[in-house]
């Protein structure tokens, strides 16, 4: 089953949006299989955002993501990677559509509340980077027959 890595960034946690953000994936019908609150180390932040290492905002991004706790999650479901990106919305909250998390709650590209893996390969890498196998729980929600024909 497809899995994606999502992280509620420090701004989402500090603003008390953890429940609201989780609710959107839960009510959509996706299955939560991993969840933890953690202070992110500089090493983890630099690995996670390694693709942006040469960008001018990299230093600020690492500072921000390590500044205050993050909620790391793994969600499961058919098509969850692309669907979660739609639920999250465009990178810049000012242009993100209303109805998306960033469109509803954000103002600034450096404070865009939540991260979501952008493709199957990065989802696999990020799940493995942030979670040990034993931290992930495979379970069968009883709701499944009411969500899928
Ligand atoms: P993530 O889910 O966090 O990876 O966001 P994304 O996939 O929508 O965007 P991308 O991977 O391109 O950028 C990663 C993060 O870097 C973004 O979420 C922003 O917080 C930050 N970022 C990207 N572009 C800019 C920029 O031009 N300026 C600043 N200040 N931050 C940026
Ligand atoms: Mg990204």
TrEMBL record:
InterPro entries for this protein: NDK-like_dom, NDK-like_dom_sf, Nucleoside_diP_kinase, Nucleoside_diP_kinase_AS
EC number(s) from the headed UniProt entry: 2.7.4.6
Query: Which residues does UniProt mark as catalytic?
Result: 115 (pros-phosphohistidine intermediate)
**Which SMART domains does its entry note?**
NDK
Pfam families to which the protein is assigned, alphabetical: NDK (PF00334)
PROSITE patterns of this UniProt entry? NDPK, NDPK_LIKE
Q: Where is the Nucleoside diphosphate kinase-like domain?
A: 1-138
Check the record and name the Gene3D superfamilies matching this protein.
Answer: Nucleoside diphosphate kinase-like domain
**Top enzyme class of this protein?**
transferase
Which amino acid positions bind ATP, per UniProt?
9, 57, 85, 91, 102, 112
Query: Which UniProt keywords are listed?
Result: ATP-binding, Cytoplasm, Kinase, Magnesium, Metal-binding, Nucleotide metabolism, Nucleotide-binding, Phosphoprotein, Transferase
A Gene Ontology biological process term: CTP biosynthetic process
Q: Would you tell me the Gene Ontology cellular component terms?
A: cytoplasm
Location (main, coarse)? cytoplasm
A GO MF annotation of the entry reads:
metal ion binding
* Reaction(s) catalysed (UniProt annotation): dZDP + ATP = dZTP + ADP; a 2'-deoxyribonucleoside 5'-diphosphate + ATP = a 2'-deoxyribonucleoside 5'-triphosphate + ADP; a ribonucleoside 5'-diphosphate + ATP = a ribonucleoside 5'-triphosphate + ADP
User: Which cofactors, if any, are listed as required?
Assistant: Mg(2+)
**Cellular compartment(s):** Cytoplasm
**What PANTHER family does the annotation carry?**
NUCLEOSIDE DIPHOSPHATE KINASE (PTHR11349)
Q: HAMAP family of this UniProt entry?
A: NDP_kinase
Physiological role = Major role in the synthesis of nucleoside triphosphates other than ATP. The ATP gamma phosphate is transferred to the NDP beta phosphate via a ping-pong mechanism, using a phosphorylated active-site intermediate. (Microbial infection) Catalyzes the phosphorylation of dZDP to dZTP, when the bacterium is infected by a phage that produces the substrate for the synthesis of dZTP (2- amino-2'-deoxyadenosine 5'-triphosphate), which is then used by the phage as a DNA polymerase substrate.
Q: What is this protein called?
A: Nucleoside diphosphate kinase
Q: Which organism is it from?
A: Nostoc edaphicum CCNP1411
This protein's encoding gene: ndk
